[in-house]
Amino acid sequence: MGLRGLPPRFVFMNIFKELKRGNSREEEYFSAALAILLDEIPELTTYLLDEMLDISDESDEYEIIPEYPISDGRIDIAIRSIHYEIFIENKISSGLGESQLERYSKHLESIGKETKLVLLTRDFIDDETIPKYTNKYIFWTDLYTLLDHFGTVP
Prior knowledge:
Number of domains: 1
Helix content: 40-55%
Strand content: 15-25%
Mean pLDDT: 84
Order of helices and strands: HHHEEEHEHEH
Strand order of the largest sheet: 1-2-3-4-5
């Protein structure tokens, strides 16, 4: 194991190198891989939420749910706690579905606790609804940088 309980750095390098390929199943694979990391390494979840969304409540325990079903779709990764409901929508080889972010945002509004919607993409998506409905738009390369930094922080 690497620093802070992470697998060796080359494991992450190999995972993210696969992004260069490009098929429809990649999105599911990388969503599942990220969900596994978040679930297996709670400190990583806490670190990423703090870095990406300024959520720094270390007392929260997070439940990580890949392919979380809602009434109007399926969220790639849901992160749930007593205080927060966070959805991560991952796009690798596809664009956004019709009104996708709006539907997810409306679902979050109905929950009754603090909510966040994160869009995670490999490539830039030019869509005017992104700033309106998301709390954070991040690229996989940025996420890799955060993961790499997490592995070296004492």
